[in-house]
Amino acid sequence: MDTEKRLYEATVEGDVRVLQELLQQDTLLLDRLTLTCFNETPLHIAALRGHIEFVRLILAQNPQLAVELDSRKSSALHIASAKGNLQIIEMLLVVNSEMSLACDRDGRNPLHFAAIKGQVEAVKEMMHVMPRAALGTTTNGETILHLCVKHNQLEVLKLLMDIKWCWVPSI
């Protein structure tokens, strides 16, 4: 079985042991991923599947993967935010908090994803780390408040309204 297929299968399963074996055989394996045109990196898939230890190892080996975007211009942080996986969100934010501001092809940032999916704790964490992400608008001009109403996420809306300081522009 070729290396890329083994890596993909290990990623889907969250098999850290296989990832470690592959990295021992080829220490540049994850580095080369940033040069290819994959739809999703192993980090995207691991974030989707909630494989915390797999994400930890990938970020330790190649933190640059945190800024890679998939074909929809989504980062691993977009995916982890939609899934509400706090441990993965925290790891990704430590590596690069600026990814909180990255927009997908529809202009949605990771905070938008968390709000749309009603991931209250994820919204709290991202607001704590990068509150200005709440000021972003989608390509349709929708704010995070619009998205909360549109997707019937009233608990997130209430949380955002309770964080009054985030809506006041700094002087």
From TrEMBL:
It comes from the Eukaryota. Pfam families: Ank, Ank_2. PROSITE patterns: ANK_REP_REGION, ANK_REPEAT. ANK repeats lie at residues 38-70, 72-104, 106-127, 140-162. Keywords: ANK repeat, Repeat. SMART domains: ANK. InterPro entries: Ankyrin_rpt (IPR002110), Ankyrin_rpt-contain_sf (IPR036770). The keyword Repeat applies. This is Uncharacterized protein. It comes from Capsicum annuum.
